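discrete fold record:
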Amino acid sequence: MKASDLKKEILSRLEEAGIPDAETDTRILLKEYAGISVSDLYADPDKALPDSFSEDELEKAMELRVKRVPLQHIIGRTCFMGFDFNVSPAALIPRPDTEILAEEALIDHHDGSRILDLCTGTGCIIISLLALMNDCYGVATDISGDALALAERNASEILGEKKERLRFFEGDLYEAVPAGEKFEVIVSNPPYIRTADMEMLMPEVKDHDPAIALDGGEDGLVFYRRIIEGAKDFLCPGGDLILEIGYDQAEDVTKIMKANRFTEVRTIKDFGGCDRVVRGILSSL
């Protein structure tokens, strides 16, 4: 079978199953299971499949994908900020939109910063920040022990010796942070889906991401209130709080921040033009 023929076969099955962005999934499956890249297809669409190609492995992956199992779970990893992160049903799959939050932290913070990551999940935010800066110290918390085990694995594989400057603690938000710790920046991608909207999520999210990492309560703001109200006890004066939000939550989160001694509060949009991050500075007054 030619590479172009295999591509057509995969794409047809994914489109028939109603897979969103079937073209992208097709390219990833071709690369992962047949070693065929996009450039290979353009350069030589009649290229023969390599001897290492396993039709059985591809078929197993296809059967899972048409059942709406996330491609990241099938492969076992995803890319975030240029790093390969292990993923599993224990934690939310890192999304490209969350890179906006990580990039915001990188813009204004410097080597040697002390960073707290709440609801760390796979650890993608804090691990990326420590990997891209020098001499930073990080603390990451999550209520799920399974998620933390996954984050620890990612830290070991991505950070190398820098892992010694990152500590993980199991518990509910600030309750897990060691007493007396202070930070220059707190980052978080907390649960923010309204409970009533949970059933409307795509099957890949609703059935495979942990509900505990999605459900933000009746109005979707439960975790924002707790994180913002508690931040004054853990941020240094002038410290920065950077939060990922849902597309329609900027106004509400901004109000909560301004009511809790945060100034210079602003909203950052994602690449699709949607509100994605709210950040503010803790006033010393």
Observations:
- The longest strand covers residues 235-244.
- The beta strands are 77-80, 83-86, 114-118, 137-142, 166-170, 183-188, 235-244, 262-269, 275-282.
